[in-house]
């Protein structure tokens, strides 16, 4: 990770109420208790994030870099990600 944030530990996220949405190169994690419905994710990429759809997150509907970029706009940390492969 090169975004200056502490790398997330999957076990820690799952123990803290996050649900996992698997992707090919990146996994997304969501904790609904932390979501304040700001809509940043929905506006950021509606193909990946869409409330009311099941699943509401389709991780591979965009490039992994794009998914990470949108998640970085989440104001509360309700969305997190972990890279499964090295970034190119
Ligand atoms: S950006 Fe974060 S807080 Fe806002 S709606 Fe999406 S998950 Fe919820």
UniProtKB/TrEMBL annotation:
UniProt domain Divergent 4Fe-4S mono-cluster: residue ranges: 21-82
InterPro entries associated with the record: Divergent_4Fe-4S_mono-cluster
Pfam families attached to this UniProt entry: Fer4_19
Protein name, entry field: Divergent 4Fe-4S mono-cluster domain-containing protein
């Amino acid at each position: 990770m090169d975004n200056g944030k502490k790398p997330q530990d999957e076990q820690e996220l799952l123990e803290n109420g996050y649900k996992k949405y698997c992707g090919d190169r990146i996994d997304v994690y969501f904790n609904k208790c932390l979501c304040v419905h700001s809509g940043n994710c929905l506006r950021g990429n509606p193909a990946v994030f869409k409330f009311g759809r099941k699943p509401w997150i389709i991780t591979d509907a965009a490039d992994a870099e794009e998914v990470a970029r949108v998640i970085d706009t989440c104001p509360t940390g309700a969305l997190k990600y972990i890279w499964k492969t090295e970034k190119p």
